[in-house]
Design brief:
By secondary structure, the protein is an alpha/beta fold. It has 3 helices and 9 strands. Strands 4-3-2-5-6-7 form a 6-stranded mixed beta sheet, sandwiched between helices. Strands 1-9-8 form a 3-stranded antiparallel beta sheet, covered by helices on one side. Helix 3 links the parallel strand 5 and strand 6. The longest helix has 19 residues. Bound molecules: inosinic acid and magnesium ion. The site of magnesium ion has 2 residues, from loops.
Length: 173
Amino acid sequence: MTDIQRVLIDERRIAHRVSELAEEITREYAGDDLLVVGILKGAFVFMADLIRKIRTPVAIDFMAISSYAGKSSTGVVRILKDLDAAIEGRNVLIIEDIIDSGLTLSYLVKSLQSRKPKSIRIAVLLDKPEKRQTDIQVDYIGFVIPDEFVVGYGLDYDGQYRSLPYVGILGDN
Ligand code: IMP
Ligand code: MG
């Protein structure tokens, strides 16, 4: 815990915002098919909370991709685990923990687009717009944050800190 310099977004603010996003999603997909695709591992906490607040039936699936080593984007994206089922004709909502350069998500959207879904939208908990390298459109954003390296609520640094209930800024040492 001493590794955390500062709590950026506490549990209560996260819960409140997640409920607001879920309401929006409920409104926009009500009565429609909805397949929520979580990007492992970072999105699993956000996704678990979000889907329990969505008041329309959802199906879920997961993908695992690697795009990052340490604290900066490499732009190299690899699919480590693919979806279990086809998405042709389905409304896909991608859930990601954070968008930074946008390289990960634009690669992913392109790759999923070729499978002919009915629609693809993106929900992220956190948006760090400062280092964006693509003009990707994100449909649901939890919080816009400054260009700091954050951990907690699913986000990690070298595999650590995912279980923290808040989003915090990691110290330098
Ligand atoms: P992008 O391709 O640069 O948009 O990077 C997105 C991915 O980088 C996310 O899925 C995270 O795994 C990771 N990432 C970016 N910023 C942070 C951060 O501040 N903390 C933890 N992971 C991050
Ligand atoms: Mg990630």
